[in-house]
Write a structure and sequence with these properties.
The protein is of the alpha/beta class and 376 residues long. It is 38% helix and 13% strand. It folds into 2 domains: 238 residues, Type I PLP-dependent aspartate aminotransferase-like (Major domain) (Aspartate Aminotransferase, domain 2, 3-Layer(aba) Sandwich); 122 residues, Aspartate Aminotransferase, domain 1, CATH 3.90.1150. A 7-stranded mixed β-sheet has the order 1-9-8-5-4-2-3, with helices on both faces. It has a 3-stranded antiparallel β-sheet with strand order 7-6-10, with no helix packed on it. The protein has a two-stranded antiparallel ribbon with strand order 11-12. Helix 2 packs antiparallel against helix 9, helix 3 runs parallel beside helix 9 and helix 4 packs parallel to helix 5.
Length: 376
């Protein structure tokens, strides 16, 4: 049996008739840029997240950059983030004029260590960027406490956590603002690039809304008295229409992902030579959506070969390195927990279009490998 890490075509074939109709209808209306499909999607997302404002933008990376600029982050500032994150967060901090400061991860959930955050704070620190990796929220109560004590802002990178919750609050809605990516492989994925920034702050909302369209006002015109340097960061109307439709069954997608993650957990939890993320059934304050299923084993490379030889695709996330390993970009840091993690971590196939036989096949192979019954 073949189980690709991600079956891209299936994203379309899943609901081919509906998607084809949405694309055709949107194009026939001539609704290409910032038309009602965009505002409809923004409204649906706002209601789903229980947040005051949503600004749909071209992608998740630019959502972070616009948020930082709207928050006044710039030259000489520092923003703390986990090294266990995609480079996009650090790039956005850099392009805002500030310095990204990557820190260590927690051994409990492999998200940012709150102790490491506090240890990295300097006089130049203006903000903390929790990156909610793999569909799980960071320990936001502790991060909020740190931010309050040191008078810092919180900017949430929720690219992998749309719908994840911490203590009942959705990822992205807890800090000054939060951002999402709707890249095709995300839990809520478009058929191209797409993103959003959400906030409960009126001032941030108004600034980002103008910034995404060259500084234009609500009438889509640039006023002579503008004091905003904007850019072109608009969400495409066709992508907005697709995302609006996908929102209608997104809770079902999340539940399916959690079922698959539980199946992996039940299989791997029997073995002592693996380290697992918290299970869906045992997450405390967290509600996890499992953008990925990432676990650790010292046998990672042998396991990956065994699964590949048997038709199962896997990935070592982000090429197998953290932000702090990017020495040529000035990010070098001594983070031994993160270093060890990237030597042992592996992502298994996990998406809502996987079939039950595929899931069972992957679990059977995992059992064979860790039980030592490779010929069984």
């Amino acid at each position: 049996m073949q189980v690709p890490f991600f079956d891209w075509k299936s994203l379309y074939f899943e609901k081919e008739e509906e998607f084809s109709k949405i694309i055709s209808t949107t194009l026939k209306k001539g609704a290409f840029i910032l038309q009602s499909d965009v505002s409809d999607f923004e409204n649906k997302l706002r209601d789903f997240l229980s947040v005051k404002h949503v600004v749909a933008v071209a992608d998740g990376t630019n959502a972070i950059l616009l948020g930082l600029r709207a928050s006044g982050v710039g030259k000489e500032d520092e923003v703390i983030l986990p090294s266990h994150s995609f480079i996009a967060a650090a790039q956005s901090i850099y392009h805002s004029g500030a310095r990204p400061v990557p820190v260590e991860m927690s051994e409990y959930d492999w998200l940012v260590s709150t102790e490491a955050i506090e240890a990295a704070i300097t006089k130049k620190t203006v903000g903390i960027m929790p990156v909610h990796v793999n569909g799980r929220c960071c320990q936001m109560d502790k991060i909020l406490d740190i931010a309050e004590r040191y008078k810092l802002k919180i900017f949430e990178d929720s690219a992998q956590a749309m719908g994840a919750k911490y203590d009942g609050l959705c990822a992205g809605t807890i800090g000054e603002w939060g951002t999402y990516s709707f890249y095709p492989s995300k839990t809520l994925g478009s058929f191209g690039d797409a993103g959003a920034l959400v906030t409960n702050c009126d001032e941030i909302y108004e600034k980002v809304l103008a910034m995404r369209n060259h500084g234009a006002d609500e009438n889509k015109t640039i006023p002579l008295e503008t004091n905003i340097w904007g850019t072109n960061c608009r969400l495409d109307n066709v992508q907005a229409a697709i995302l609006s439709f996908k929102m209608e069954y997104y809770t079902e997608v999340i539940e399916r992902r959690r079922q698959i993650a539980q199946a992996y957990h039940d299989t791997l939890n029997k073995y002592s030579d693996v380290r697992l993320p918290p299970a869906p059934s045992d997450s405390g304050k967290n509600f996890d959506i499992f953008q990925n299923y990432e676990f650790c084993t010292a046998k990672r490379d042998d396991l990956r070969k065994f699964l590949g030889d048997n038709g199962v695709g896997t990935i070592v996330q982000w090429g197998g390195f953290g932000v702090h390993m990017l020495e040529n970009l000035g990010m070098k840091a001594d983070l031994p927990i993160t270093d060890k993690f990237f030597k042992e971590s592996l992502l298994l196939p996990l998406n809502h279009v996987m079939t039950n036989p595929q899931i069972e096949y992957v679990c059977q192979l995992l059992d064979k490998f860790f039980s030592g019954d490779l010929n069984g």
